[in-house]
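Example record

One chain of 390 residues, shown exactly as stored in the release files.
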Amino acid sequence: MIVAVTLAVAPGGERPFSGVKTGILAAAAIALLLRAVLLAPATSASLVSRILAGLWLGTLALAALLGPAAQLGGMWLGAAAGLVLLSLLQAPPPWTPALRAIAGAGTVLALVAALQAVGVDPFLWMGWSGSHPGERMRIYGTLGNPDFVAAYLGASLCVTVGEAVSEAQARWRRAWIAAAALQLCALAATRSWGSLLALGAAALSLLWTRGSASREQPEGPKRSRWGAALGLALGGALLLSSVWGRSPSTALAGRLYLWSVAAPHVLDAPVFGQGPGSFEVLWPSWEAEYWARGASAGQERFAAPQDHAHLDYLEWLLELGLVGSAPRVLLLLMALRAGRGALDARGRAALAGLVALGARAWVDFPLARPAELCLFAVLTALVLRSRAAP
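Predicted C-alpha cells for this chain:
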C-alpha cells in the first residue's frame, strides 16, 4: 500500500498526483478493513487507541454533516486514512516489512527527484511534460512539488537510517546506507527550510527515547553511534548549505500572514468546525475581511487564493473543530509516549519519522496530502505497537 500510494502517478490527468493516490489509499483502506475483520488477530493495539481511531472517523462524519461549509469531496482522504489507521491498530502489520516498504518507497522517490534535479526527468521519457517552472520546482518526484517531496523524505530518511543501523548483514547494511545517502541528497536538492525543522525535531526525539540499552555498550554499537552522529552533522550541514540563499524570513512572513487571516475564524465554529474541505471555499471571504480591517501594505505580496492553512493543526481546528481535532491530537500524543520506550533502533527510527512529519505539519500541510497522510497513519500504528513488535 505505502509503495503504491507514494509512487502512483497518472500523467495527463486532471489531478495526476493526488487523485490517483487518494483512490489507491481508499481501496487499500477497504482491503485492510476486510483483513482486520477476517484475520481475527491474536493481538491488537490498546482499546483506547482503537477508540480514538474510531472517533477520527466518527467526528469527521459529524463535521461533514454539521459543518456549514462542508465539501463532500473534502472528507474522503481523511476517511480513508482514518480507516487505514483503525485497521492497522486492530490487525497490526508485520513490523520489519512495513518499515522496509517505507524505506524502499522513499528511496525510489529520492531517485526520481535526484534525476529531476540533474535535468533528467523520467516522466519526460514517457512523453509527459509537466508545467514546473524554475530550477527548484522541477524537482517534484512522484508527489507534485519539491516541498511535498521534502516532507515525505524527511520521514522516510529516518526509517531508512533505522534499517541501516538494524541490519545484521553487511551487504544489506551498505545498501541501506546508500539508500539513506540518496534520500539525503534528494532532500537537500528540494531546498526546503521545513526540512531543517523536521529533521531537527527527529534528532531531538532520539535523545528523548529511553530505549533498552544498558550502560555497558559493546564496541560495535559505540562505533555505530559515532557514525550516526557524524552522518547527522554532515547531513545537517548539507541541508543548511542547500537552502542558503532562500530567505527564511520571507517564508515565515508568508506563513504568519496565512495564520493571521485564518486563525480568528476558529471561533466561528469552535465545536464541530466549518466542515471538511471548507478552508479553500472560505478563504476568499476571510482574506477580504482581513483586508477590510486594515492589513499592512507589506502583506500585499502574500494575498492570493489558498487551499490550505500551511499548519495542519490549525486547519483541523477550522474544519473539524475541537471535537474532530481532539482524537487526532490524542492519537499523536499516545504514539509519542509509546515511542519513547521503543526497544530497538527500528522503533526509535519509526518514532523519529513520525516526529519529522508532525513537526513539518507546523509549517506545511503534509497531513492533507495522500502520500504523507498515509505514511503518518502507518507510522502512528507502528509506533503504537512498537513495544510488542517482533
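Notes: Residues 212-223 have pLDDT under 50 and may be disordered.
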